[in-house]
Amino acid sequence: MIASVTNNSKGLKVKWAKVSGADGYYVYRRASADDKWEKAATIEGRTNVTYSDTSVKAGKRYYYTIKAYSDDGYVSAKDSDGEFYYRLAAPGLDSIASKSYGMLISWDEVSKASGYIIYRKASESASYEEIGRVEGGDTTSYKDKSVASKNGKNYYYSVRAYITKSGTNYRSSYDTAGLYYYRLQAPELKKVTKKSSYNKLTWVENEKAGGYVIYRKTKKAGSWQKVAQVESGDITSYKDKDVKKGKTYYYTVRAYKVKSSKKYVSVYDTAGVKVKRSA
After folding, report:
1. Average pLDDT over all residues of the chain
2. What CA–CA distance (Å, rounded) separates 238 from 251?
3. Model pLDDT for residues 245-278, shown as the tens digit of each residue
């Protein structure tokens, strides 16, 4: 009678087939094949054929079986074996970042997990597809290197935990919304030209960008500081007029795009382009 037992956000979800003439169902649970069945819930209504068991613990196995009943006193037989599944919480999605090698996805560790399955899709309405797995419940990040060369692309990611028992993987549920990022390639900073009163930066246009962020530092080992933002993807130069004689400057540029009021930025050339002004 039971169609499936799966993990959901609250616990284990039990689903079964409708029984003709039934007015409701009794749900039974046990922790092992040798234990006695105990009634876990009474579900009223013939068409109500799911039950979420929220009193389950991580990494534990639970068996379920169903009896149908009618208001005139009839109670069906139950499947003496039942169906079982292991409880595992869905990973909390932590962060997503664009890197030179692709995208980096991070999540929270799930108690009792043996590993994680990573999913990706290219639009909100698309279906998630598995793109990779990581073994070890304490491994909580994944590098998606397959998108390293992509520019102006939407990516959604989600993660499932799994627990391996007797060679079988039992999966958690997952966050259907997922983590989203708009991936952009870093613009190439072609040159920095010294002028009499400013340094002129020129870079290659990224046709998918909405604008660019310019960074500067005065020491090779120093930290990059934002000095300007160019709010057009068509503009490919910038004049830095806040410069001094005899000083050395390093520059780098990031592309960005605003989508749904959020800014998504590309990676950048960490070395940058160096220029030294005359004394």
Report:
1. 97
2. 11
3. 999 999 999 999 999 999 999 999 999 999 999 9
The number of beta carbons lying within 10 Å of the beta carbon of residue 189 is 20
- The confidence score (pLDDT) of residue 279 equals 82
Identity (one letter) of the amino acid at 268?
Answer: Y
pLDDT at position 79:
93
- Tens digits of per-residue pLDDT, 134-180? 999 999 999 999 999 999 999 999 999 999 999 999 999 999 999 99
CA distance 138 to 1: 37
